[in-house]
Design goal:
By secondary structure, this protein is α/β, with parallel strands linked by helices. The protein has 2 domains: 36 residues, no CATH class; 201 residues, Vaccinia Virus protein VP39 (Rossmann fold, 3-Layer(aba) Sandwich). The protein is built from 8 helices and 13 strands. The longest helix is centred in the last third of the chain and has 15 residues. The radius of gyration is 17 Å and the shape is globular.
Amino acid sequence: MDIRGTCISSTKDEHGPIFVYETKNTRILSFDGKIYQSSMKLNDINGLHLDYTQAMMAGLLFVPIINTATILGLGAGSMAKNLINNISELKVHVVEYREEVVNIAKKYFCLPCTDHLSIHIDDATNYIQNTNIKSDIIFSDLYNSEGIEPKQVQSSYLHNCKNALNKQGVLVLNICHTTPKLQKELNEILKCEFKNQLLSLEVGSGNTIVLAFKNTIPTMNKEELLSMGKRLQEKMNIPMQHYIKLICDNKKL
């Protein structure tokens, strides 16, 4: 299905096209004119408006103190803007392979220039293998025009993500548009690499969000999670308690 709205920008780099669409209330980034890559409400430029981006923030529930976050895959910068806007003194590192995507995010999606945001133009697998930066949370959202980036399913990539986390860190993966075979392969790699210290939730858009813990999953009961979720929900204006219930149902907490 084609995206509804007026195309206000159509550019192309060596990796393919980049489209920006606009409706009365929303601006949309797409790589193929069919699938939303990112979405921004014009009256709430720092908000998260796609279900899967909201659900990825559930990883924050399990990080007691967050100073450094890394986002692998910029898109229109929704997650970076939301984190910077809601968590004071947070340092956010974003890795984006396509420089033109960064240019589009700045021009059309209000990606700010701030000391709290560092953008690295690099291949995510190369960056995460060589970085000396330790993050409290890593968000991996690597996609191309055909769906999930195959590199995100590689054992070496997930191993390097784990190494780039602090002791109590968590890796948050967005999984969507995968074949059953690829999904099974990824599940096995995750179980092996993270010693089955995993939580997951499925959101209405068909995305599966996986939380992979460097060490053990913090011990919290459902009531404690819901209490934390309420505070985070009020702060970030996302239905965090709904996503907690999805996690608990999966984990049977």
